[in-house]
Amino acid sequence: MVIAYTRDVSPTLGDCELTHLAREPLDVAKAAREHAAYEAVLVTLGAEVRRLPAAPELPDAVFVEDTAVVLDDVAVITRPGAVSRRDETATTAAALAAHRSLVRIAEPGTLDGGDVLVIDRRVYVGRSSRTNDAAIAQLDGFLGQRGYTVVPVDFRGCLHLKSCATRVADDLVLLNPEWVRPESFAGCRAVAVDPGEPHAGNALRLGHSVIYPAHFPMTRARLEAHGLHVSPVAMTELAKAEAGVTCCSLLLRGP
Length: 255
Hints:
3-stranded mixed sheet, globular, 20% helix, L-arginine/glycine Amidinotransferase, Chain A, alpha/beta
């Protein structure tokens, strides 16, 4: 069983944090429709969608991935790099406590879940404006004793590590080689985004399918050429908030 925790789009989404993109008009109603369609695809692919409590006063609260890192035996509650986002974690922790033991990133550490890419027992953590070395050291302390290897990764050009690199099959990573080095991911093959679609590195693997933004058709063709089944979703409005398909849900497997 796969549970997908999500949260409704806040009516204040237009006030979201932005780092690499210029602010432009954002249609919140359209973003909410995109998000509802995204949840429907999750259900179609076999996930049980459970919504966290709405947080209309928190513009970025729909991006639930940043509030936790969920592994098979533990969930790490993050301390988001943007101060405005730190109140998002309480409801995530309350929900995940029913499924996993919890550990928490503490000050001075800052960690966004979007900077964490898990491939089997290796946990790749991007150094970014939202995730610092203090948090990476804490994560290594939590997870090293559980048999995981924490690997810091340098990247550039985008908000989170998973903005430019995501796992799309057992040994295959979709990435933008201009923003992150393919050799950063030991033992994995790489499929590069189309050069005309630099922001196309974010995909969400679920079962035997990959949920993927519909506005990156050239990179979608590359994924399909690797034999992957792609489930496209509209993401144009959510993308204006530096969103990808991974950040709108927290997936956990098992009881």
